[in-house]
Design brief:
Elements (H helix, E strand, L loop, with lengths): L1 H14 L23 E3 L2 E14 L12 E16 L2 E14 L7 E13 L4 E14 L13 E14 L6 E14 L3 H4 L4 E15 L2 E14 L8 E15 L2 E14 L7 E15 L2 E13 L6 E14 L4 E14 L7 E16 L2 E14 L6 E13 L1
Antiparallel strand pairs: 1-2, 2-3, 2-19, 3-4, 4-5, 5-6, 6-7, 7-8, 8-9, 9-10, 10-11, 11-12, 12-13, 13-14, 14-15, 15-16, 16-17, 17-18, 18-19
Protein backbone atom coordinates (compact mmCIF):
# COMPACT_ATOMS: atom_id res chain seq x y z
CA UNK A 1 0.00 0.00 0.00
CA UNK A 2 2.73 2.48 0.95
CA UNK A 3 4.52 2.15 -2.39
CA UNK A 4 1.23 2.88 -4.21
CA UNK A 5 0.75 6.03 -2.16
CA UNK A 6 4.25 7.23 -2.94
CA UNK A 7 3.60 6.39 -6.59
CA UNK A 8 0.48 8.56 -6.53
CA UNK A 9 2.36 11.47 -4.99
CA UNK A 10 5.23 11.05 -7.41
CA UNK A 11 2.96 10.82 -10.45
CA UNK A 12 1.23 14.08 -9.57
CA UNK A 13 4.58 15.82 -9.20
CA UNK A 14 5.76 14.42 -12.53
CA UNK A 15 2.71 15.65 -14.45
CA UNK A 16 3.32 19.18 -13.21
CA UNK A 17 7.08 19.12 -13.85
CA UNK A 18 7.79 19.50 -10.21
CA UNK A 19 4.44 20.61 -8.71
CA UNK A 20 2.91 18.72 -5.90
CA UNK A 21 -0.24 17.94 -3.96
CA UNK A 22 -2.85 19.30 -0.44
CA UNK A 23 -5.77 19.20 1.80
CA UNK A 24 -5.28 19.33 5.52
CA UNK A 25 -7.83 17.51 7.65
CA UNK A 26 -6.40 18.47 11.01
CA UNK A 27 -8.91 20.69 12.83
CA UNK A 28 -9.17 22.98 14.62
CA UNK A 29 -6.18 24.79 13.11
CA UNK A 30 -6.30 24.77 9.33
CA UNK A 31 -3.44 25.35 6.92
CA UNK A 32 -4.32 28.72 5.35
CA UNK A 33 -4.99 28.74 1.61
CA UNK A 34 -4.77 32.49 0.99
CA UNK A 35 -3.03 35.53 2.39
CA UNK A 36 0.44 34.35 3.45
CA UNK A 37 3.54 35.26 1.50
CA UNK A 38 5.07 32.51 -0.62
CA UNK A 39 8.58 31.59 -1.71
CA UNK A 40 9.25 30.49 -5.31
CA UNK A 41 11.11 27.15 -5.33
CA UNK A 42 11.51 25.96 -8.90
CA UNK A 43 8.01 25.38 -10.30
CA UNK A 44 6.49 25.59 -6.80
CA UNK A 45 5.33 28.45 -4.62
CA UNK A 46 5.94 27.37 -1.00
CA UNK A 47 4.09 28.79 2.01
CA UNK A 48 5.71 28.00 5.39
CA UNK A 49 3.91 28.72 8.62
CA UNK A 50 3.57 27.96 12.31
CA UNK A 51 0.59 27.62 14.67
CA UNK A 52 0.81 27.65 18.45
CA UNK A 53 -2.09 26.64 20.72
CA UNK A 54 -2.19 26.98 24.50
CA UNK A 55 -5.21 25.54 26.23
CA UNK A 56 -6.91 23.80 29.14
CA UNK A 57 -8.94 20.58 29.03
CA UNK A 58 -11.03 19.88 32.14
CA UNK A 59 -11.82 16.24 31.25
CA UNK A 60 -8.84 14.79 29.48
CA UNK A 61 -10.12 11.19 29.42
CA UNK A 62 -13.82 11.91 28.77
CA UNK A 63 -14.91 10.38 32.09
CA UNK A 64 -18.23 10.75 34.00
CA UNK A 65 -16.46 11.31 37.33
CA UNK A 66 -12.97 11.66 38.86
CA UNK A 67 -12.06 13.83 35.90
CA UNK A 68 -8.44 14.61 35.04
CA UNK A 69 -7.72 18.20 33.97
CA UNK A 70 -4.61 19.53 32.30
CA UNK A 71 -3.24 22.56 30.53
CA UNK A 72 -1.42 21.84 27.28
CA UNK A 73 0.45 23.33 24.34
CA UNK A 74 0.42 22.26 20.69
CA UNK A 75 3.10 23.46 18.28
CA UNK A 76 2.22 22.96 14.61
CA UNK A 77 4.75 23.89 11.91
CA UNK A 78 3.61 23.31 8.34
CA UNK A 79 4.73 23.73 4.76
CA UNK A 80 2.37 24.14 1.85
CA UNK A 81 3.28 24.14 -1.83
CA UNK A 82 1.29 24.99 -4.94
CA UNK A 83 2.03 24.73 -8.65
CA UNK A 84 0.33 24.82 -12.02
CA UNK A 85 1.22 23.31 -15.37
CA UNK A 86 -1.08 24.59 -18.07
CA UNK A 87 -4.63 23.87 -16.89
CA UNK A 88 -3.43 21.39 -14.25
CA UNK A 89 -3.15 22.33 -10.56
CA UNK A 90 -1.22 20.56 -7.83
CA UNK A 91 -0.51 21.23 -4.19
CA UNK A 92 0.83 19.51 -1.08
CA UNK A 93 0.90 20.09 2.68
CA UNK A 94 3.42 18.77 5.19
CA UNK A 95 2.42 19.28 8.80
CA UNK A 96 3.53 18.30 12.32
CA UNK A 97 1.42 18.64 15.48
CA UNK A 98 3.38 18.26 18.71
CA UNK A 99 1.22 18.24 21.85
CA UNK A 100 2.43 18.42 25.46
CA UNK A 101 0.20 18.03 28.58
CA UNK A 102 1.44 19.56 31.83
CA UNK A 103 -0.49 17.22 34.15
CA UNK A 104 -0.31 14.05 32.05
CA UNK A 105 2.98 13.61 30.14
CA UNK A 106 1.91 10.08 29.14
CA UNK A 107 -0.57 11.70 26.74
CA UNK A 108 2.03 13.74 24.88
CA UNK A 109 1.96 13.09 21.15
CA UNK A 110 3.59 13.97 17.85
CA UNK A 111 1.32 13.62 14.82
CA UNK A 112 2.44 14.33 11.27
CA UNK A 113 1.02 14.14 7.77
CA UNK A 114 1.93 14.55 4.13
CA UNK A 115 -1.17 15.26 2.07
CA UNK A 116 -1.41 15.97 -1.63
CA UNK A 117 -3.97 16.88 -4.28
CA UNK A 118 -3.86 17.02 -8.05
CA UNK A 119 -6.43 18.45 -10.45
CA UNK A 120 -5.69 17.17 -13.95
CA UNK A 121 -7.70 18.53 -16.89
CA UNK A 122 -7.96 16.26 -19.93
CA UNK A 123 -10.37 18.45 -21.89
CA UNK A 124 -13.22 20.90 -21.42
CA UNK A 125 -15.40 17.90 -20.54
CA UNK A 126 -13.14 15.49 -18.67
CA UNK A 127 -10.84 15.72 -15.68
CA UNK A 128 -9.36 13.79 -12.76
CA UNK A 129 -8.93 14.90 -9.16
CA UNK A 130 -6.43 12.94 -7.06
CA UNK A 131 -5.86 12.89 -3.31
CA UNK A 132 -3.17 10.99 -1.39
CA UNK A 133 -2.07 11.01 2.23
CA UNK A 134 0.49 9.59 4.59
CA UNK A 135 -0.66 10.31 8.12
CA UNK A 136 0.54 9.36 11.59
CA UNK A 137 -2.04 10.13 14.27
CA UNK A 138 -3.36 8.98 17.62
CA UNK A 139 -6.61 8.23 19.47
CA UNK A 140 -6.76 10.33 22.62
CA UNK A 141 -7.29 8.11 25.65
CA UNK A 142 -11.01 7.87 26.39
CA UNK A 143 -12.06 8.99 22.90
CA UNK A 144 -12.84 5.44 21.72
CA UNK A 145 -14.19 2.23 23.26
CA UNK A 146 -10.84 0.44 23.01
CA UNK A 147 -9.28 -0.77 26.28
CA UNK A 148 -7.77 2.05 28.35
CA UNK A 149 -3.99 1.90 27.95
CA UNK A 150 -1.00 3.59 29.59
CA UNK A 151 -0.45 5.80 26.51
CA UNK A 152 -2.61 6.90 23.56
CA UNK A 153 -3.01 4.44 20.70
CA UNK A 154 -1.00 5.58 17.67
CA UNK A 155 -1.73 4.67 14.06
CA UNK A 156 -0.68 5.20 10.46
CA UNK A 157 -3.49 6.04 8.04
CA UNK A 158 -2.32 5.91 4.43
CA UNK A 159 -4.25 5.91 1.18
CA UNK A 160 -5.11 7.35 -2.20
CA UNK A 161 -8.40 8.21 -3.89
CA UNK A 162 -9.61 9.99 -6.98
CA UNK A 163 -12.66 11.28 -8.82
CA UNK A 164 -12.99 11.17 -12.62
CA UNK A 165 -15.61 13.56 -13.98
CA UNK A 166 -17.07 13.81 -17.44
CA UNK A 167 -19.40 16.53 -18.64
CA UNK A 168 -18.87 20.15 -19.56
CA UNK A 169 -19.94 22.88 -17.12
CA UNK A 170 -23.58 23.66 -17.79
CA UNK A 171 -24.18 20.40 -19.68
CA UNK A 172 -27.55 18.69 -19.36
CA UNK A 173 -25.94 15.59 -17.85
CA UNK A 174 -22.59 14.73 -16.28
CA UNK A 175 -21.06 11.87 -14.31
CA UNK A 176 -18.50 11.37 -11.56
CA UNK A 177 -16.77 8.07 -10.78
CA UNK A 178 -14.81 7.78 -7.53
CA UNK A 179 -12.48 5.10 -6.19
CA UNK A 180 -10.09 4.87 -3.27
CA UNK A 181 -8.07 2.58 -1.01
CA UNK A 182 -6.91 3.29 2.56
CA UNK A 183 -5.23 1.29 5.27
CA UNK A 184 -5.07 1.91 9.02
CA UNK A 185 -2.34 0.25 11.09
CA UNK A 186 -1.86 0.80 14.81
CA UNK A 187 1.77 1.03 15.87
CA UNK A 188 1.68 0.54 19.67
CA UNK A 189 -0.35 -1.08 22.47
CA UNK A 190 -0.68 -4.18 20.29
CA UNK A 191 -2.59 -6.17 22.91
CA UNK A 192 -5.58 -3.85 22.57
CA UNK A 193 -5.18 -2.46 19.03
CA UNK A 194 -4.32 -5.50 16.88
CA UNK A 195 -7.99 -6.11 16.18
CA UNK A 196 -8.50 -2.55 14.89
CA UNK A 197 -6.16 -2.74 11.87
CA UNK A 198 -8.15 -2.73 8.62
CA UNK A 199 -8.14 -1.87 4.92
CA UNK A 200 -10.94 0.07 3.25
CA UNK A 201 -11.62 0.18 -0.49
CA UNK A 202 -14.38 2.21 -2.10
CA UNK A 203 -15.96 2.48 -5.55
CA UNK A 204 -18.90 4.65 -6.50
CA UNK A 205 -20.54 6.89 -9.05
CA UNK A 206 -22.90 9.84 -9.30
CA UNK A 207 -25.03 10.97 -12.25
CA UNK A 208 -26.16 14.60 -12.39
CA UNK A 209 -29.08 15.81 -14.52
CA UNK A 210 -29.64 19.54 -14.87
CA UNK A 211 -33.30 20.52 -14.47
CA UNK A 212 -32.78 24.28 -14.10
CA UNK A 213 -29.83 26.58 -14.80
CA UNK A 214 -28.69 26.36 -11.16
CA UNK A 215 -30.26 23.07 -10.07
CA UNK A 216 -29.28 19.43 -10.70
CA UNK A 217 -30.87 16.14 -9.72
CA UNK A 218 -28.40 13.47 -8.62
CA UNK A 219 -28.39 9.68 -8.43
CA UNK A 220 -25.54 8.12 -6.44
CA UNK A 221 -24.33 4.68 -5.44
CA UNK A 222 -21.34 3.80 -3.24
CA UNK A 223 -19.79 0.43 -2.34
CA UNK A 224 -17.17 -0.04 0.38
CA UNK A 225 -15.30 -3.09 1.60
CA UNK A 226 -13.75 -3.07 5.09
CA UNK A 227 -11.26 -5.88 5.62
CA UNK A 228 -9.89 -6.41 9.15
CA UNK A 229 -6.38 -7.84 9.30
CA UNK A 230 -6.36 -9.84 12.55
CA UNK A 231 -6.66 -13.56 11.85
CA UNK A 232 -10.10 -14.76 12.90
CA UNK A 233 -11.64 -11.28 13.08
CA UNK A 234 -15.40 -11.23 12.48
CA UNK A 235 -15.65 -7.47 11.85
CA UNK A 236 -14.95 -7.52 8.08
CA UNK A 237 -17.95 -6.26 6.12
CA UNK A 238 -19.26 -4.57 3.00
CA UNK A 239 -21.35 -1.40 2.85
CA UNK A 240 -23.66 -0.23 0.06
CA UNK A 241 -25.38 3.15 -0.12
CA UNK A 242 -27.93 4.43 -2.63
CA UNK A 243 -29.02 8.05 -2.85
CA UNK A 244 -31.31 10.28 -4.86
CA UNK A 245 -31.14 14.00 -4.33
CA UNK A 246 -30.64 17.52 -5.58
CA UNK A 247 -27.80 20.02 -5.75
CA UNK A 248 -28.55 23.71 -6.10
CA UNK A 249 -27.19 27.21 -6.18
CA UNK A 250 -30.45 29.10 -6.16
CA UNK A 251 -28.87 32.54 -5.74
CA UNK A 252 -25.49 34.01 -4.88
CA UNK A 253 -26.62 33.83 -1.24
CA UNK A 254 -27.96 30.26 -1.16
CA UNK A 255 -26.42 26.93 -2.17
CA UNK A 256 -26.48 23.35 -0.99
CA UNK A 257 -27.24 19.71 -1.62
CA UNK A 258 -29.60 17.11 -0.20
CA UNK A 259 -29.55 13.38 -0.85
CA UNK A 260 -31.64 10.64 0.74
CA UNK A 261 -31.58 6.89 0.36
CA UNK A 262 -30.64 3.60 1.95
CA UNK A 263 -27.55 1.96 3.41
CA UNK A 264 -26.80 -1.72 4.01
CA UNK A 265 -23.93 -3.06 6.11
CA UNK A 266 -23.36 -6.81 5.77
CA UNK A 267 -20.75 -8.67 7.82
CA UNK A 268 -18.81 -11.58 6.37
CA UNK A 269 -19.41 -13.49 9.61
CA UNK A 270 -22.84 -14.75 10.58
CA UNK A 271 -22.03 -14.04 14.24
CA UNK A 272 -22.41 -10.28 13.64
CA UNK A 273 -25.66 -8.37 13.18
CA UNK A 274 -26.19 -6.75 9.77
CA UNK A 275 -27.82 -3.34 9.41
CA UNK A 276 -30.20 -1.93 6.78
CA UNK A 277 -31.92 1.41 7.05
CA UNK A 278 -32.36 4.94 5.81
CA UNK A 279 -29.44 7.24 5.02
CA UNK A 280 -29.08 10.92 4.20
CA UNK A 281 -26.52 13.65 3.65
CA UNK A 282 -27.64 17.29 3.58
CA UNK A 283 -25.68 20.52 3.54
CA UNK A 284 -26.76 24.10 2.91
CA UNK A 285 -25.15 27.54 3.03
CA UNK A 286 -27.00 30.84 3.43
CA UNK A 287 -25.13 34.12 3.07
CA UNK A 288 -27.57 36.94 3.91
CA UNK A 289 -24.56 39.31 3.81
CA UNK A 290 -21.21 38.97 2.09
CA UNK A 291 -19.54 38.94 5.51
CA UNK A 292 -22.03 36.69 7.34
CA UNK A 293 -22.56 33.00 6.54
CA UNK A 294 -24.72 30.23 8.02
CA UNK A 295 -23.82 26.59 7.33
CA UNK A 296 -26.17 23.73 8.19
CA UNK A 297 -25.49 20.02 7.72
CA UNK A 298 -26.99 16.71 8.78
CA UNK A 299 -26.17 13.11 7.93
CA UNK A 300 -26.84 9.51 8.85
CA UNK A 301 -24.15 6.88 8.32
CA UNK A 302 -22.47 3.84 9.84
CA UNK A 303 -19.14 3.91 11.68
CA UNK A 304 -16.79 1.11 12.64
CA UNK A 305 -16.84 -0.32 16.14
CA UNK A 306 -13.85 0.45 18.36
CA UNK A 307 -14.61 -2.21 20.94
CA UNK A 308 -18.31 -1.96 21.84
CA UNK A 309 -20.99 -3.44 19.57
CA UNK A 310 -20.76 -4.65 15.99
CA UNK A 311 -21.00 -1.18 14.41
CA UNK A 312 -22.35 2.30 15.15
CA UNK A 313 -25.19 4.08 13.36
CA UNK A 314 -24.55 7.80 13.66
CA UNK A 315 -26.89 10.73 13.07
CA UNK A 316 -25.04 14.03 13.16
CA UNK A 317 -26.30 17.61 12.75
CA UNK A 318 -24.45 20.90 13.03
CA UNK A 319 -25.07 24.61 12.48
CA UNK A 320 -22.36 27.25 12.22
CA UNK A 321 -22.55 31.03 12.00
CA UNK A 322 -19.43 32.79 10.70
CA UNK A 323 -19.32 36.58 10.79
CA UNK A 324 -16.67 39.16 9.88
CA UNK A 325 -17.18 42.17 12.15
CA UNK A 326 -14.36 44.10 10.49
CA UNK A 327 -11.70 43.28 7.93
CA UNK A 328 -9.58 41.91 10.80
CA UNK A 329 -12.02 40.49 13.36
CA UNK A 330 -14.04 37.32 12.71
CA UNK A 331 -16.13 35.10 14.97
CA UNK A 332 -17.73 31.71 14.59
CA UNK A 333 -20.50 30.21 16.71
CA UNK A 334 -21.34 26.55 16.33
CA UNK A 335 -23.65 23.91 17.79
CA UNK A 336 -23.97 20.21 17.06
CA UNK A 337 -26.01 17.17 18.01
CA UNK A 338 -24.91 13.57 17.57
CA UNK A 339 -26.83 10.34 18.14
CA UNK A 340 -24.79 7.10 18.20
CA UNK A 341 -26.75 3.84 18.24
CA UNK A 342 -24.61 0.77 18.90
CA UNK A 343 -25.61 -2.38 17.02
CA UNK A 344 -25.99 -5.67 18.90
CA UNK A 345 -25.11 -4.69 22.47
CA UNK A 346 -26.42 -5.93 25.79
CA UNK A 347 -27.57 -3.78 27.44
CA UNK A 348 -28.68 -1.54 24.57
CA UNK A 349 -26.48 1.54 24.19
CA UNK A 350 -27.41 4.89 22.62
CA UNK A 351 -25.25 7.99 23.14
CA UNK A 352 -26.59 11.54 22.65
CA UNK A 353 -23.85 14.16 22.44
CA UNK A 354 -24.36 17.92 22.19
CA UNK A 355 -21.68 20.54 21.78
CA UNK A 356 -21.52 24.34 21.70
CA UNK A 357 -18.59 26.51 20.79
CA UNK A 358 -17.45 30.04 20.10
CA UNK A 359 -14.30 31.10 18.24
CA UNK A 360 -12.77 34.49 17.54
CA UNK A 361 -9.83 35.48 15.31
CA UNK A 362 -7.97 38.74 15.03
CA UNK A 363 -5.67 39.38 12.06
CA UNK A 364 -3.14 41.60 13.79
CA UNK A 365 -1.02 41.70 10.64
CA UNK A 366 -1.28 40.00 7.27
CA UNK A 367 1.22 37.43 8.54
CA UNK A 368 0.15 37.24 12.22
CA UNK A 369 -3.18 36.01 13.60
CA UNK A 370 -4.46 35.64 17.18
CA UNK A 371 -7.41 33.51 18.20
CA UNK A 372 -9.41 32.18 21.12
CA UNK A 373 -12.09 29.53 21.40
CA UNK A 374 -14.16 27.68 23.96
CA UNK A 375 -16.12 24.45 23.41
CA UNK A 376 -18.45 22.48 25.69
CA UNK A 377 -19.53 18.85 25.18
CA UNK A 378 -22.18 16.83 27.02
CA UNK A 379 -22.76 13.13 26.35
CA UNK A 380 -25.82 11.38 27.77
CA UNK A 381 -25.75 7.60 27.35
CA UNK A 382 -28.23 4.86 28.18
CA UNK A 383 -25.24 3.30 30.00
CA UNK A 384 -24.28 5.84 32.66
CA UNK A 385 -20.59 4.95 32.68
CA UNK A 386 -20.30 6.53 29.21
CA UNK A 387 -21.72 9.91 30.27
CA UNK A 388 -19.37 12.88 30.40
CA UNK A 389 -19.09 16.65 30.33
CA UNK A 390 -16.05 18.38 28.94
CA UNK A 391 -14.85 21.96 28.43
CA UNK A 392 -11.95 23.02 26.26
CA UNK A 393 -10.39 26.51 26.31
CA UNK A 394 -7.86 27.41 23.64
CA UNK A 395 -5.70 30.43 22.72
CA UNK A 396 -3.92 30.37 19.37
CA UNK A 397 -1.27 32.25 17.44
CA UNK A 398 -0.65 31.71 13.73
CA UNK A 399 2.30 33.11 11.81
CA UNK A 400 3.26 32.99 8.13
CA UNK A 401 5.69 34.84 5.88
Amino acid sequence: MRRWIFAGLGAAAFFAAGPALAQSQLPPQQVPTAGPGGLPVGPLVVYPGMNLAIGHDDNLFWQPAARTASSFTVVSPYLRGEATSGPHKFDFALRVDDGRYNSSPADNYTDYSLIGNGDIVFSGRAGLKLHAELRHGHDARGSTDAAFTATPNEYNNNGIDGVFHYGAPGAQGRIEINAGAYERRYTNNEASTAGLDHNTTQLGGTFFWRVRPRTELLFETQHSSIDYQLAGSTLSSTEDRYYIGVKWEATAATSGYAKFGRMDKNFDSGTRENFSGSAWDVGARWSPLTYSVFDISTSKQTNESTGFGDAIVTQFSTITWSHAWTSRIRTQALASYRDDSFINTAPSRVDDTTSFGLKANYDFRRWLRFGAEITHWTRDSTINTFDYKRNLLLFTVGATL
